[in-house]
Recover the amino acids of this structure.
DNA sequence: TAGTTTTTTTAGGTTTGTCTAAATTTTATT
DNA sequence: AATAAAATTTAGACAAACCTAAAAAAACTA
């Protein structure tokens, strides 16, 4: 397989994430996502097109090819395995792992990654709850779970709100929780099954079991 | 502190190693050591001089400044900690770790390295027996040991030959052992205390206890 | 739909790190 | 000491990955 530079890998990875949300990815979006200028993105896309990583027609947006997606999943696998390592073995906090993993993910020795995976016990999710692709690029399908059932120290994403009562919505609004919001389950209080929840950059708060039974989440 | 590119770091690190052996380092030596052309080395030295990492006068050879040495020890620390990790935790063989560590050493998060060090239990030597600088750049002073006393699975460097008898020298010549040669102690045979020794890229051989008592080595 | 705004691309430049070929300096040799 | 050889530096180029400013295309909008 061809070899890709760090910059090429960053483009491929970012396209992968952006194309989850929309049919095609635009030049401006990608420039924004990577932190470069649109003109630089155009340059890079020409190169990635030649290397058959993207479908791209000038002015028409772009998308990874099947090969590009496979490659992207490899980068994501490396990133998330390192995040797991940093969090699990080196005691990094879950919000500190990303920056370091950004560098480590580009060290591309296949043997290194396979052995790291084994050393970590073939984890299925990173500390943010995002799934870790296996060495074939396959990803665990995640089903929705009731927030009240989540173990402590997990990070989950709100995916559905069952009960649309004013009280629940009031609380959600107050805590600024919406679909897609990531919640960190800090701990569960035995005596009433209430749970302590934290949202990135905000103080933790308590949620009752009743409330949590109406919020569905996915891992990650 | 200033930030150095991967290429700059490779130059600094290689100068450090070369200047152990001689007063000053030459352009050709460094080019050879890094795998570039002498002209490229000259370019890089101008830059490193401006950044106060080397003492350098055109045509006169060069040497790291005190600051340069300190920086080099930081790179070497990262390299050897990763080698230890790869060998100890990921079960890489001792001769496979170097190449991967070459990449990992340039990931320069201070926090990462300090936590890795703690996770590994603050090891003092890498799998080749080379000392790992601490976070102040200090290195464990190693004393000479009798080869016959070395535990199996260690790598040592020949540092002194006591008995200058023809028989011993004959054997040393035959096995191509000289000062500075690295020996891997594979195992010790209980019944006569002979030891099995391997030199990189050569078949293993057996050495008697008597012989080993006349060879002194240092860790690494 | 014609004009305006936004998005994207092109054209031309810069920096980093490399190269080859030629010039210069140092070192070795006779 | 003069000359030949070796080492080093300079000069000029190139590729990668970025940039700014201008041109071109697409998308809005009145």
């Amino acid at each position: 397989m061809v070899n890709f530079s760090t910059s090429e890998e960053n483009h491929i990875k970012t396209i992968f994430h952006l194309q989850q949300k929309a049919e095609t990815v635009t030049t401006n979006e990608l420039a924004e996502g990577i932190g470069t200028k649109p003109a630089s993105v155009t340059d890079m896309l020409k190169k990635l097109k030649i290397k058959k990583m993207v479908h791209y027609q000038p002015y028409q947006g772009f998308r990874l090819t099947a090969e590009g997606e496979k490659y992207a999943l490899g980068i994501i696998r490396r990133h998330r395995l390192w995040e797991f390592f940093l969090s699990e073995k080196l005691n990094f906090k879950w919000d500190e792992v990303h920056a370091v993993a950004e560098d480590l993910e580009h060290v591309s020795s296949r043997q290194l990654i396979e052995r790291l995976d084994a050393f970590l016990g073939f984890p299925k999710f990173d500390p943010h709850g995002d799934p870790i692709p296996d060495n074939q690029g396959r990803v665990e399908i995640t089903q929705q779970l009731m927030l009240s059932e989540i173990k402590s120290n997990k990070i989950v994403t709100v995916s559905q709100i069952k009960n649309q009562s004013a009280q629940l919505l009031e609380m959600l609004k107050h805590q600024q929780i919406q679909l897609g919001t990531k919640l960190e389950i800090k701990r569960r209080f035995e005596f009433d099954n209430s749970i302590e929840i934290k949202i990135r950059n905000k103080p933790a708060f308590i949620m009752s079991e009743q409330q949590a039974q109406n919020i569905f989440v996915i891992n990650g």
Notes: Residues 196 and 206 of chain B are 4 Å apart (CA to CA). The helical segments of chain B are 6-18, 27-34, 38-50, 66-88, 97-104, 110-119, 166-174, 209-212. Chain B touches chain A at residues 86, 89-92, 96, 99-100, 103-104, 107, 109, 111-112, 115-116, 118-119 (CB under 8 Å). Residues 66-88 of chain B form the longest helix (23 residues).
